[in-house]
Amino acid sequence: MLVGADLTLAKIPKAVVQLWFEVRHLIQQATGLRRGIVVTSLESHTMFGLEKNLRTSMTMMFVKTVPTNPYDRSLLKRYIEPKLLEQFESQHEQDPTAVLVWDPQYAPHGTLATVSAPPRNVLTLIVPPKPQSDWWDSPWFRIGFIIALGAALAAPFWLFRWN
Amino acid sequence: MPANSTKLSGLPNATDLFLKHIPKPEELRRPQFGRQNAIEYRNILVIGDQGSGKTTIDQALAYSLAQRYRATRYYAGVEHGGVAGLLNDCTDMQRTHTCWWVPI
């Protein structure tokens, strides 16, 4: 199970998004496994805050709180019955375990459900890779380069000045 | 749960709904040909405010998944603010040898 947390407005390079959609094949290449299941879960504060390609097809959707912005609300209403959405909004603070679930197969108009913390955590925290930056791309190199270029251009004038 | 909270009774458990989409180990698709990839794929979307319990949902789902596949190799990882690390990790041979087993 691969969980992408806090993805609201996350800048995910296109190459990574492309690889994300090839995850089954990447796992096969790396491990040799040909049988199994990959479950990916993407967390976001809003639907529009998530990269479009990542939210286009989903097996299920869990809504823990209803976003207040009208764009997300109108989008959510296409998945979940508006009355249920309003009922959940007014009740969810009473029970923190309540969650709205949309499931095209078993709850096509959404349903209320409960979920509580498991007895232990099985999610390993993954440290994201450091972004690769080339040394010539650093601001210090640029500043140094401009100073060196300026000195090189000014040098002949200084030499003529002493002569 | 806070003391002044009320429990909504009679509601289905979200993990039970989730497990309806997860085949039992013996029901997983089998590759038919030599190099055919029969790995199945499910995608979940979790929407919620900060501190609303999005990761708790994922923990609950990951736990239920680990219980269903307890006799097999299992890996569950979470990355904040991206997915590149997850891709690196799940395709890293060393990691897959050390982390793909989570006994419950």
List the helices and strands and how they pair.
The complex is a heterodimer of chains A (163) and B (104).
Chain A lengths: L1 E4 L8 H7 L2 H9 L3 E10 L15 E4 L6 H10 L2 H10 L6 E6 L3 E8 L9 E2 L13 H24 L1
Chain B lengths: L13 H6 L18 E10 L6 H15 L8 E4 L3 H7 L2 H7 L5
Describe this structure in words.
The complex is a heterodimer of chains A (163) and B (104). Chain A has 163 residues and is α+β, with helices and mostly antiparallel strands. Chain A has three domains: 1-55, no CATH class; 58-131, no CATH class; 133-163. Chain A is 37% helix and 21% strand. Chain A contains five helices and six strands. Chain A has helices at 14-20, 23-31, 70-79, 82-91, 139-162, and strands spanning 2-5, 35-44, 60-63, 98-103, 107-114, 124-125. A three-stranded antiparallel beta sheet of chain A has the order 3-4-5, covered by helices on one side. The relative contact order of chain A is 0.09. The model of chain A has no long low-confidence stretch (mean pLDDT 87). Chain B has one domain (14-99). The radius of gyration of chain B is 17 Å and the shape is globular. Chain B contains four helices and two strands; from the N terminus they run αβαβαα. Chain B is 34% helix and 13% strand. By secondary structure, chain B is an alpha+beta fold. Chains A and B meet through strand 1, helix 1, helix 2, strand 2 and strand 3 of A and helix 1, strand 1, helix 2, strand 2 and helix 3 of B. Strand 1 of chain A pairs parallel with strand 2 (77-80) of chain B, so a sheet runs across the interface.
